[in-house]
Specification:
- By secondary structure, the protein is an all-beta fold.
- It contains no helices and ten strands.
- The chain is globular.
- The chain starts with a strand and ends with a strand.
């Protein structure tokens, strides 16, 4: 059973930064493209960013382009999301999963951006 453990969320003022981490318990982690997703209260879970297995192909939602950066460390089975220039509309619970959302969702990490 693959486990996804997100961390790094918190409360930050608009314009601030956070770095999220997602530890993945999967021996074949390096074979999977990974993604970050977020869910605001009362809304669907939306795509935020994705990275392919080798880290040389990145994809972002239009709403976060130029502000967020996804990266990964295959030696540590970890995927990261650097979030800069945070806005109140970025407030959500953030989750990681494979690009195809194959794995059971973790608990997520709460990001709250105050205006």
């Amino acid at each position: 059973q693959v486990q996804l453990v997100e961390s790094g969320g918190g409360l930050v003022q608009a314009g601030g930064s956070l770095r999220l981490s997602c530890a993945v318990s999967l021996l074949t982690f390096s074979r999977f493209g990974m993604g970050w997703f977020r869910q605001a209260p009362g809304k669907e879970r939306d795509f935020v960013a994705a990275i392919n297995w080798s880290g040389d192909r990145l994809n972002y939602a239009d709403s976060v382009k130029g502000r967020f950066t996804i990266s990964r460390d295959n030696a540590k089975n970890t995927v990261y999301l650097q979030m800069n220039g945070l806005k109140p509309e970025d407030t959500a619970v953030y989750y990681c999963n494979s690009e195809s959302r194959n794995f059971r969702w973790g608990q997520g990490t709460q990001v709250t951006v105050s205006s």
